[in-house]
Amino acid sequence: MYQTTRRPESPVSIIGAGIAGAWQALLFAQAGHAVTLHERSDEGLTHATSHWAGGMLAPYCEAEVAEPIISRLGLRSLDIWRRELPDTPFNGSLVVALPRERNDFERFAKMTEGHQRLDAVGLAALEPSLEGRFREALFFPTEGHVEPRRVLPKLHERIRAAGGTIKFSSNVSASDLDGIVIDCRGLIARDEQPGLRGVKGEMILIETSEVQLARPVRLIHPRWPLYVIPREAGLFMLGATSIEAEDTGVSVRSALELLGAVYAVHPAFGEARIVEFGSGLRPAFPDNLPRIGVRGDRIAVNGLYRHGFLIAPALAELTLAYVERGQIDNEVMQCA
Fold first, then answer.
1. Is the pLDDT of residue 224 over 70?
2. For residue 16, is pLDDT > 70?
3. Which of 22, 26, 273 is nearest to 148 (CA)?
4. How far apart are the first and last CA of the chain?
5. Which H/E stretch holds residue 161?
6. Is the pLDDT of residue 290 over 50?
7. Residues 252-264: tens digit of each pLDDT
8. What are phi and psi of 275, to 5 degrees?
9. Quick check: helix, strand or coil at residue 203?
10. What's the pLDDT at 99?
11. What is the mean pLDDT of residues 196-221?
């Protein structure tokens, strides 16, 4: 990192109230800036990518497939989540595998750190519902998870409490706004960032009282990992696929894969009630890495891919450091 000259204080407008924009608005408002957060949809954000996200805060697990920068940003973000929303569940996460995926399980263990190996007895003590289901597991005790549809309203409340303004159904462009403008529109920003593409992530929400889990469980899968993420009131989110397609909805193939995999985690899931199918398009650049692009008073934060909830707080911290101190993170920021 290096520093440039300090930028003058200015009103800050942020476009997009999903997870990236919400964290930008919160940190800037807390720093004393006059913040307005604009969102083109209504307060439900049902069309936003964040609405369909898993909300896993798992930097160690993501190291198996992601670049080191994701782990760096993710680990910093965990500290910010704990600081700003101390009730965030940090119960850790589990990785398990069926016997036929033993080699992949060992590969996962070698590619990641921050975990403890549990035998069958240790796994049962941690998650009684999984007693007798797996011979061993990897436990990542410092990881966490949030429920996107509950935590986004909390972040919006914190923004207002810090003096920020949120305008829903406000379809604005950067040219309509004065001062510093931070563009967090995700895939919609392709009008100015043509390198973006959409990567579809599908999810299924199920309900059962037959299984209780206190933390996300990741099942090693030959094509993609299955996440079983506990929600409140007996709900579980199943995800998530990463498909190079920009259509919406959940395919029959994906539904069969996800439901078959969760049945392998616990047969009781076979009697669960399906509550919802859905999918979101994650904004990604060709390298699948996030980017903060700076052109004068116009800043674009995008390309969070499948790591939005994991890295958004750290990206907001970097943007704030640039605006207030001229500090540049060369791994993430591009200045025109």
1. no
2. yes
3. 22
4. 17
5. helix 148-161
6. yes
7. 988 998 999 999 9
8. -100, -40
9. strand
10. 92
11. 95
Strands 226-230 and 35-39: unpaired
DSSP state of 69: H
CA distance 171 to 47: 14
Triad 37, 38, 44: Cα angle to 5°? 100
Give the span between the Cα atoms of 159 and 38, in whole angstroms.
Answer: 12
In single-letter form, the type of residue at position 261 comes to A
Q: Please tell me the predicted confidence (pLDDT) of residue 165.
A: 98
Residue with tokens 């949120």: 166
C-alpha closest to that of 28 among 120, 158, 154, 212: 158
User: Is the omega angle on the peptide bond into residue 161 within 30 degrees of 0, that is, cis?
Assistant: no
Paired tokens of 241: 């696929």
Q: What is the pLDDT of residue 225?
A: 74
Q: Which two tokens stand for residue 136?
A: 């061993």
For the chain, where are the E strands, in sequence order? 2-3, 12-15, 35-39, 56-57, 93-96, 116-119, 136-140, 144-145, 165-168, 180-183, 197-207, 217-219, 226-230, 235-239, 273-284, 291-295, 298-302, 327-328, 333-335
DSSP assignment of 289-324: --EEEEETTEEEEE--TT-HHHHHHHHHHHHHHHHH
Between vectors from CA 288 to CA 169 and to CA 61, what angle results, nearest 5°? 100
- Phi, psi (degrees; rounded to nearest 5) at 105: -65, -45
Q: How far apart are CA 52 and CA 277, in angstroms?
A: 10
Say if residue 4's pLDDT is above 60.
Answer: no
Query: How far is residue 162 CA from its own chain's centroid?
Result: 23
What is the arithmetic mean of pLDDT over 186-202?
Answer: 94
Adjacent-strand bridge partners of 237: 205, 229
**Tokens representing 300?**
């674009």
Dist CA 232 CA 217 (whole Å): 15
* DSSP state string for 138-160: EEETT-EE--HHHHHHHHHHHHH
* Average pLDDT value for residue range 158-169: 98
Percent of the chain residues past pLDDT 90, beyond the cut? 88
Q: What is the mean pLDDT of residues 13-29?
A: 98
